[in-house]
Amino acid sequence: MAPEQGGVCTPDRSAEITVTDTGGGLQRLQIGVAPGTTPAYDPGCDTLAPPPPPGGAFDARLQTTTEDVLADYQGTPGTWIVAFDAGTGADPISLGWDPSALPNNADGYYIQDRLTGTLLRVSMAAVNSVTVTLPLSDLEIVYEGPTAVTLTSLQAAGFAAPGAALVWQVTALAALLGITLLLTRRRREWLVR
Question: Are 52 and 109 in the same domain?
């Protein structure tokens, strides 16, 4: 689904969140970052959601600070609220996404419950979907920044020679989360960021 773009909205990055229930309900939602947008509804960029359906029908939408939308772009990565209702007898709800569509391959993005942030909390970099079996009617997608990594060992050899290798090991959790290291060479030093 493409957001309404009246020349005002130029997203830096966006990702589709697909919400489904077991009765065939399906809604595609867009979240993203676009310069000059806010956590409220931004005409010309965000897409308004239709009125909610009658009770017992499937529904999924994003909630901004002012309106319900199908596409929500914010000026900086922050928090997106995904509200949903399964159709009658069509529980549970599932949400799916492509981690590579989010900045940094979703590193630092989490989908979690809005009650405590601990009942359901999933790294969006580690998996590409979640099924909601708890009695929840909404979740939030939060950006907390890149995950910090502590190197457990570092071994370097032959920096001056062509084909020099820099070998490192990180904790198993970092590898599971798909964390990558950015290496830059300045003069004769290697900087790990």
Answer: yes
- Average pLDDT of 164-168? 50
Q: What tokens were used for 50?
A: 């239709």
Structural contact between residues 44 and 6, judged by C-beta atoms closer than 8 angstroms: yes
21 and 113 together in one domain: yes
How buried is 35 (Cβ within 10 angstroms: 0-12 exposed, 13-18 middle, 19+ buried)?
exposed
Give CA–CA dist 123/116, Å, rounded.
Answer: 16
Q: Is residue 105 in a domain?
A: yes
Q: Give the model confidence (pLDDT) of 98-113 as tens digits.
A: 988 886 667 889 999 9
pLDDT in tens, 124-133: 989 999 999 9
Are the C-beta atoms of 47 and 27 separated by less than 8 Å?
Answer: no
DSSP conformational letter for 54: P
Q: Which amino acid is at 149?
A: V
What are the helix (H) ranges across the chain? 172-176
Both tokens assigned to 132: 């909601």
How far apart are the C-alpha atoms of 186 and 191, rounded to whole Å? 7
R_g of the chain, CA atoms, integer Å: 20
How far is 73 from 193, CA to CA, in rounded Å?
Answer: 28
109 and 131 part of one domain = yes
